[in-house]
Design goal:
Strand order of the largest sheet: 15-16-18-17-19-22
Structural class: alpha+beta
CATH architecture of the largest domain: Roll
Strand content: 15-25%
Radius of gyration: 35 Å
Distance between the termini: 25 Å
Shape: elongated
CATH class of the largest domain: Mainly Beta
CATH superfamily of the largest domain: ibrinogen binding protein from staphylococcus aureus domain
CATH topology of the largest domain: ibrinogen binding protein from staphylococcus aureus fold
Helix content: 25-40%
Length: 566
């Protein structure tokens, strides 16, 4: 990506349609992001402004977002001072990633006042600040206290620009001074340009170098000017390089042809950031449950090791039983206060030494060994039974950890949350008097084979159970990776209508949505649903099956994307 100063400049030109628009409503999505509902030029617009540490930006959005019921303090201040106001001007500060929205508003007594909404796009230091016309701070979405910061962002303080190095504005004659800022003998010219010029990104400098061929003291200014002039041709473009998506407001020759272009910069930014932002929110929401599952997994792992130690110790039980028997048989050979006795072991026909407690009688020594044998026998039986349960738990938590990695929607987080509650792993606090929610409708993930057959995939245990036990019919084909945690996959067509190509593609989906998605030649079992059975009392998602066949497939991400029904 390259949301640099040049991109901001082009985006502000695009958003000039918002000038003279009225801010009808302001809503806050999270701790760092706001949506302004603006009426301008007889149309409604949603302007998103974010100071997110990774996704700071501003643009028009067509996406739907959820908003908290109780407005945070910053939102209350924003509504008080700028809701209902008119946007008079949107301006960029220099060529930097700092933007000011100058808004004509009214104070408590109805007088016209100016309010300034300042957006600073600075990575993790990004901020949104509201000031009066004299730049006295009314509030900031992130507060900076005077103790540990170079400047203070708190109500009542005067706004100060972020402390940055003095750079040249490429949109003024300042750019003529660039050669004097560059040491052409020290190398790393690109990095020096970034340190000397305001609002340039590595992507823009690489494009300038690509056009210039090689930076020299004679061509560096002209190369920058020519690239800046060429970039006035705004074509919002998305590129892919080394598996990563990049975007810019204008075509970049050094990246080749874009994989996609957009009709507006806002649509480009909206498309790029929305899924990433939603994914970040989902991961944040899921993180607590991931920690719970990870903790349970580690606890079960420790339990298994302890049970194995108990079983290893129980291996001594037969020795103690033998000692008890031999002592009982040869008790007449035990001398008073002896610490041991040597007797003939009639199991091996060899002499054996048996340790004794000299403070108790021979018969009590024999009973002591019988008692130790009995305790170890009970411990062995209990440990064996518990070990079987712990291994099932281990497999269950391992599958949950895999499912957490595959989460793509907030609904899937809620489904796992509900499952953890049902399994007694977490408690959910419910408000007294709160109405009981209706049962959640489970959404399965749909794919289509080359032959047009529908394939359904469950990405968590609730979806898997619903798909296998309720949605699928007896003559449908069911797929699952062999002895590997993964999704249940079903071709929802009678088995006699399914061709080999359909089977291989459905098996490939099963391998992709499994813990073996990065592997080659993954074994996948398939059978008809009538041969798949849920074990009474088993963990969610656990089934047994018979009459299966096995195929070996390799997961292919692009093929999965092409098969997905959106």
């Amino acid at each position: 990506m390259a949301f640099d100063g040049n991109f901001v400049h082009a985006l502000i030109d695009e958003l000039s349609t918002l000038e003279k628009g009225k801010i009808n409503k302001i809503q806050q999505m999270d701790d760092t992001s706001l949506v302004f509902k603006i009426r301008s030029q007889r149309a409604n617009h949603n302007l998103l402004i974010s100071a997110h540490p990774m996704y700071a930006r501003f643009h028009l959005t067509e996406q739907k977002y959820e908003f908290p019921f109780n407005p945070p303090m910053f939102l209350r201040v924003a509504r008080k001072h700028i809701e209902g106001g008119i946007i008079r001007d949107i301006r960029q500060i220099g060529n930097d990633r700092r933007v000011e929205f100058h808004i004509q508003s009214r104070n408590e007594i109805g007088d016209d006042v100016e309010r300034i909404l300042i957006l600073e796009i600075m990575g993790r230091h990004s901020n949104i600040i509201i000031t009066d016309e004299k730049y006295n701070i009314l509030d900031g979405i992130k507060h900076l206290t005077p103790n540990n910061n170079a400047r203070t962002i708190m109500p009542g303080f005067e706004y100060e620009a972020p402390p940055t190095a003095e750079k040249l504005n490429p949109r003024t004659e300042d750019i003529e001074k660039l050669p004097a800022r560059i040491d052409f003998n020290s190398g790393k010219i690109n990095k020096q340009i970034l340190g000397a010029v305001e609002g340039f990104s590595p992507l823009f400098v690489k494009e300038t170098e690509h056009r210039a061929g090689h930076f020299t003291i004679r061509n560096i200014v002209s190369a920058v000017k020519e690239t800046m002039a060429e970039a006035e041709n705004v074509v919002p473009s998305m590129y892919e390089q080394n598996g990563k998506e990049l975007f810019y407001y204008t075509p970049l020759a050094h990246l080749g042809e874009p994989v996609e272009t957009f009709d507006t910069l806002s649509r480009l930014v909206d498309d790029y950031y929305h899924n990433r932002y939603q994914t970040a929110l989902i991961k944040q929401k899921a993180n607590d449950y991931l920690n719970v599952i990870g903790r349970e997994y580690e606890r079960t792992e420790r339990k298994i090791e302890k049970l194995k130690d108990d079983l290893k110790e129980a291996e001594e039980k037969d020795k103690y039983q033998k000692y008890g028997e031999l002592l009982t048989a040869f008790m007449h050979q035990v001398k008073p206060y002896a610490e041991s006795v040597r007797v003939m072991d009639y199991y091996t026909n060899e002499e054996i030494s048996i340790p004794l407690d000299p403070n108790i009688s021979p018969s009590d020594n024999a009973q002591k060994y019988y008692s130790r044998y009995s305790k170890l026998k009970k411990r062995e039986n209990a440990a064996t039974e518990q070990l079987d349960h712990a291994r099932v738990d281990m497999e269950y938590f391992s599958s949950l950890l895999h499912q957490m990695e595959e989460i793509t929607t907030a609904e899937e987080v809620d489904e796992i949350r509900e499952e953890l509650h049902e399994q007694g792993i977490i408690r959910i606090k419910r408000n007294q008097g709160a109405k009981k929610k209706k049962a959640r409708k489970i959404q399965l993930h749909e794919y289509r084979t080359t032959n047009g057959l529908t394939v359904l995939v469950g990405k968590n245990n609730k979806q898997n159970d619903y798909l296998t036990a309720r949605k699928a019919q007896n003559n449908h084909l069911w797929f699952h990776t062999k002895d590997i945690p993964g999704s249940h996959v079903v071709i929802t067509h009678p088995a006699d209508q399914i061709e080999e190509q359909d089977i291989m593609e459905a098996a490939m989906l099963a391998s992709f949505f499994s813990k073996a998605k990065e592997s080659d030649s993954v074994p996948v079992d398939f059978t008809e649903i009538k041969h798949v059975h849920k074990i009474s009392g088993a963990k969610p998602g656990f089934v047994t099956y018979t009459d299966q066949q096995t195929v070996f497939v390799t997961p292919e991400k692009k093929k999965v994307q092409n098969m997905e029904v959106k």
